[in-house]
Write a structure and sequence with these properties.
Length: 377
């Protein structure tokens, strides 16, 4: 998993954490430095949220215990989480350094777009999870998002068109045409609104009649949009054919297996159906090689799938080669051992409400210093 995915996964799912404890020190606003590059204390909080989330995702993790009350991959849980937070910090610094070494820059338009997205998304997360009270402020969030952008830029300059290790279109197309399939699907109405305006399940006979009608029209080669306009004539807003055109990947866990089976086992032009707990669909297999646009729209995903593991290993190599300065006082203040966590497996309430911290007031005070972080990054 690359740095961006690690950070994003941690930020979205870090609701089981509250705050880090503080201790006295002359300067605890930063945790790691490498020349002009800095991991502030607020950023370290965010990276520690990621480390904790990754601990929860480990095979064999006991959700009835905190990660600090069990062994993780054969070692003390606290050490595992602390080591992972340090690893993420070093990866951050390595990406910052490599980005500048390659002479890459962030254009003004991209910076504005990132800032706007970060501000909107952070506001949403803060309302739900109280990030500001945890010491993980907006400026820290922005820096981690910018680092993601830089990582993606390095990736594209390495494997993208004209890159030092460019992956040619022919190689990507081979993967696209063998591991992906294209289908047009129509969701069959399984409920209807009665005279009282209430939703009720339709009779199975009516559902079967719809499936038969839609199947015949697709087999006859009727225009997709015309079929949708007729079938959804009672809807205030009719769907467009493009909305129901899908490209699916082998093994995609988010796509119903029955649809995957049809997509990869049927012939081009064949019509079929998928009926399971997710719903009822009538499907038609399309020719994925017919439109160059389909490949173009999926090129970046293909490249990421092909090279993300290799690129992640490169970042590991870069991060292992650096020796950043550590601020032991700040690291002690924000040690994961100070997180007060209730095991998620013992409560049916949300993970955010399942934790308490006696250090929240001091950590909230620490967050007030984040407004000055931009001067040190």
């Amino acid at each position: 998993m690359n740095l961006f995915k690690k950070i994003t996964a941690g930020l979205l799912a870090a609701a089981t954490l509250v705050s880090f404890a503080g201790c006295s020190g002359s300067d605890t606003t930063w945790t790691y430095k490498l020349g002009d590059y800095t991991v502030t204390s607020g950023m370290y909080v965010g990276l520690s949220l990621t480390a904790y989330q990754e601990a929860q995702a480990l095979e064999g993790f006991d959700a009835s215990k905190t990660p600090f009350d069990q062994e993780l991959e054969g070692e003390d849980g606290l050490k595992w989480v602390t080591d992972e937070a340090e690893s993420l910090a070093k990866r951050y610094l390595a990406v910052e350094q490599k980005f500048d070494e390659m002479g890459l820059t962030v254009d003004e338009e991209s910076q504005k777009a990132m800032d706007a997205n970060a501000e909107a998304y952070y506001e949403y997360l803060d309302k739900i999870y109280g990030y500001a009270d945890k010491g993980f402020g907006l400026e820290s969030y922005k820096k981690l998002q910018l680092n993601q952008y830089k990582s993606n830029s390095i990736f594209n300059m390495t494997y993208g068109e004209g890159g030092s290790e460019e992956v040619k279109d022919d190689e990507l197309k081979d993967i696209f045409y063998s591991d992906y399939a294209k289908v047009f699907y129509i969701p069959v109405n399984i409920t209807e609104t009665d005279e009282k305006g209430e939703q009720k399940n339709r009779d199975q006979a009516d559902i079967d009649a719809d499936i038969e009608m839609l199947t015949k029209r697709l087999e006859n080669g009727d225009d997709f949009q015309a079929i949708l306009d007729d079938y959804f004539s009672g809807e205030e807003t009719k769907p467009t054919a493009s909305q129901f055109m899908a490209i699916v990947q082998k093994g995609d866990l988010q796509t119903p297996q029955s649809i995957l089976d049809f997509a990869f086992d049927s012939k081009i032009g064949e019509v079929g159906k998928s009926i399971d707990s997710t719903g009822s669909f009538v499907l038609k297999k399309m020719d994925i090689t017919e439109s160059e646009e389909d490949f173009t729209n999926n090129r970046s995903n293909l490249l990421s799938t092909l090279k993300s593991e290799e690129f992640n290993a490169k970042i590991d190599e870069w991060s292992n080669a650096i020796e950043p300065e550590k601020n032991e006082k700040a690291l002690s203040k924000h040690s994961p051992k100070n997180i007060k966590i209730k095991p998620t497996g013992t409560s049916s309430s949300s993970s955010e409400s399942s934790v308490e911290s006696s250090e929240s007031s001091e950590e909230s005070s620490e967050n007030s210093s984040e407004g000055t972080e931009s001067s040190t990054d």
